[in-house]
Automatic annotation (TrEMBL):
Coiled coil: none annotated. This is Probable acetyltransferase. Keywords: Transferase. Residues 112-247 form the N-acetyltransferase domain. One of its GO terms (molecular function) is acyltransferase activity, transferring groups other than amino-acyl groups. Pfam families: Acetyltransf_1.
């Protein structure tokens, strides 16, 4: 039985299980799904339980010769993609709260130095952004006009902020998943602000009936550590064909 909610499992399993099973060997499953959009015509998902799932359009499966294969390992899958000129976008590590940890989260109270932000906080948020690097702003993608925004203050100064928006990744998807970004100004990192802000905003999203989702690049060890410190559990690694792919 999964430690994650049915909302989360249904969200991910829908594109990765609907269609024709081309291969199912060991922990690897390959599916041809005709409903995938062009920008998602090939995806790979490695789950925390050890399963590896690849899904692609029938046209892509035919081009790569998957209809003619009767056995494949995960290593061979990746080699086949590489040989065909398929480039996968940098992997996203995906984190969610387990059902048990969600219960603990919902029993907490928001601390006094953390509160929601709105348009009335435009000036303080602009000051916060001005104190961050362009790279940090791009990586975090925290915006005042997002669906949910929370911040931690020292006095009147915003030192950490997180924002969320509903995440509809697949055509026709109506799963209630809320994706978050978080940014702490450099002088205040390592002091627990981000962990508390992440928990506060995830609690607010959960109260609105959404599953909080934390994503980071696979090589962003600091961000992955924050997710775990905030009580989220690693769900898996998600890779999508790159816009620059030759295939």
């Amino acid at each position: 039985m999964s430690v994650f909610s049915s909302t989360i499992m249904d969200f991910w399993m829908t594109p990765f299980t609907h269609g024709e099973v081309l291969l199912q060997t060991g922990s690897l499953t390959v599916i041809a799904n005709a409903t995938l959009p062009e920008e998602r015509r090939l995806m790979v998902l490695e789950l925390s339980d050890g399963r590896v799932m690849a899904v692609m359009t029938p046209a892509m499966a035919d081009k790569l010769g998957f209809y003619q294969l009767d056995a494949l390992t995960t290593t061979a899958l990746r080699q086949t993609l590489q040989d065909a000129g398929v480039v996968l976008h940098g992997a996203d590590e995906i984190f969610y709260f387990s059902a048990q940890d969600k219960e603990t989260l919902m029993q907490e109270a928001t601390e006094g130095d953390i509160r929601p932000l709105n348009i009335e906080d435009e000036a303080v948020f602009a000051e916060f952004q001005a104190s961050a690097t362009e790279q940090d702003l791009d990586d975090a993608y925290v915006e005042l006009d997002h669906w949910e925004v929370c911040g931690a203050f020292i006095g009147d100064s915003l030192v950490c902020a997180a924002s969320m928006y509903p995440w509809d990744s697949y055509p026709g998807d109506d799963a209630r998943i809320a994706d978050l970004g978080v940014l702490t100004l450099p002088p205040f990192r390592g002091k627990g602000y981000a962990r508390r802000v992440v928990r506060a905003i995830c609690r607010r999203a959960s109260e609105r009936g959404y599953e909080p989702q934390y994503r980071c690049q696979f090589d962003n060890l600091a961000s992955a550590s924050l997710a775990k410190a905030a009580g989220l559990t690693w769900f898996g690694k998600w890779e999508v064909i790159s816009p620059d792919s030759a295939a």
